[in-house]
Amino acid sequence: MSRVTDQMKKPWVVMPLVVLVAFGGWWFAIRDDGGGADASTGPTMTDQAVEVTVGDMDKTVTAEGTVAAADTEDLSFTSSGTVTAVNVAAGDTVTKGQVLAEIDSAELEASVADAEASLADAQAQLSDDEDAGASDEQVAADESSVTSAQDQLTAAQEALDGAQLVASFDGTVATVDITVGEELSSGGQGGTTPTGSGSGSGGSASTLGSSSSGAMGGATTDSSGSSADISLTTTGSFTVDLGFDDTDISSLAVGQAASVSLSTSSSSSSSGFGGFPGGGGFPGGPGTTNQSSSTGSNQSSSDDSSDDTAATTPTTTGDAVDGLVTEVGTIADASSGVASYPVTVAFADSSGDFNVGATVSVEITYDSVDDAIQVPTRAITTQDGTSTVEVETDDGTETRTVTTGLVSGTMTQITDGLSAGESVVIEAPSFGGNGGGNGSSDSTGGGFTPPEGMEAPGGTATETNGSGE
After folding, report:
1. Which end of the chain has fewer CB atoms within 10 angstroms, the N or the C?
2. Domain 46-66+239-431 adopts which CATH fold?
3. Residue 199, pLDDT score
């Protein structure tokens, strides 16, 4: 026993034991304090009053696409000859009916004169035979000669018309591929119909002020594969082709309004339970300020939301311009492995901000309600097809049946059962313990942003406009 006592008195034995005992006491002390802190500061669900608001509500879908000219036109001479005039250069602005280039037309004019003379002779012969009482066979032959002469005159006139390239709409010269003095073979460099013009890519945007009637005189698109003598594009009128999946395409239709903005894609993510519009914000921890404000748009591309999301979303730049859905495809393209239905939006812009080839974000509104009475969707309980809300009254809280309408983002329209200015009760997390704060921006708190009109624990109600106005 004395040997054990002697060993215990040695410093290299005593000191480690002292340190071990001290550390154990400290550990249990801070664990108890931490447990108490967790219990006092953990979130609890409390009832909060949210005011019933009035505002516009929209349901939208958004996609990105590349800007294209609303109309293009490829012009080529259809007759052989020498180029005598090129009146435009690439980048020039032209007007409908303007002569862009010409070839030597002397031979073509002579052909027209000969055809006119032949037609006059045939018509005179028919008249003489009819006056002389010629046989039916002779009259029929004369009529056939007149028809043939008329066809020859039409062809000669078309060839003469082909000696000029004429703009069929107001636009901009994209390319010029001929020079004065150049000898062109029959059909020029193109292969279009005798009027020498054709329409190319892009959907019609006539509703936005552009003309897409194609070429003057019924020209067709050059399908020969050769380059055009002169190419035109519309000025200030554009289209953008978009793709939507089968869940969105059913909501889209020709004539729906769209908003077009220049965009760049950026990756974004969010987490936590579905947010509320509005709310003044609880500060996020000691010495920090974490305020949240509502954009008031109440717009969403989907009725469903997720607590944890990560996606690539378009970031818009500059002012948006109005557009219109002009085409909605019914046949999906699955080349990428996912079915995508084509949708075309046409828009006009005179600011010069939009150029062919630019990437734009297009937001299409497929449903909207003006001055809608609305509440946070979380305030509504639906059971067996009946929707109810808890309404705060002077006498307490009452359960009231409501009729719902449009759902947009975190808000739901109420078509019957509530009036603007009333307050509905909603459950929301509250943080106790130290740092709960009074809802002001200079106090410490738990980092929670209450819904619009909600009263912060121990403080006054925050005010923000989350009505969508």
Report:
1. N
2. 2.40.420
3. 36
